[in-house]
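Section 5.1 Outputs to date
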Amino acid sequence: NQNEIAALHSVTARLTENPSLIHNPELSFFKEYLISLGAQIPRRAENQSATADADHQSEESWEEINDPELMAREEISADLAMEAKEPLCDNTDLIDDVRTQANSAVAANRYQDAVDAYTKLIQFGAASALTYAKRGETLLKLRRPCSALRDAEKALSINPDSAAGYKLRGKVHRYLGNYQQSFADFTTSQTIDYDENLSEMQHFVEAQVHRFKAYQRHHSADDHDNHHHEAEPQSHHSHSHSHSHGHSHSHGGCGHGHSHS
């Protein structure tokens, strides 16, 4: 279409004259397209709005801007038993009753009661990998991601092929902003035992990974422009270092390494 080509030529001519126009909100779609191709975007002029787009935000706030459902990391409570207590319980009727209580509590959204019941099963010595995964799921419902992550790791140590363990760990990483790790765990879980209900969250974390990589490329280009006179090329380490190890500076730490990309 000749009209469309002429319009595109007009836009590119204006951008050639004034490259900072690329930061105008109405051209955000075009800027994102250029970034996706690896283009180097010029820095925003200082007199332009600092809030015109989220790319101007510091790396410390990228996850909050793009993911309002993130959870804060918490201190793990000492009352969450991880191992059986001696002597082990051999009362199968009692074990079955507590297991029923746990499942009923989950169904009724009484998550703390469910956590308490699953903890009893662990103390009884009647816990499988699935028991830890189920307790972790309820802990995540209570917004206790670090505790849930520990249960996921325990489940996978018992059964390295536990789909429930990978699914739980993927969910935890999703809510901690560790999207690359989350996507990897979801992929493994889905390979072992496909769950259609997980697809939406899996697609979300995959999209976040791509968005963050585009963000990094853009800011790496900005940093290169800003520091090109320096002898050492590591002047933009604050971006790559901060994000390669996750978002622990905002939410505290769970004692695990994280990565976006």
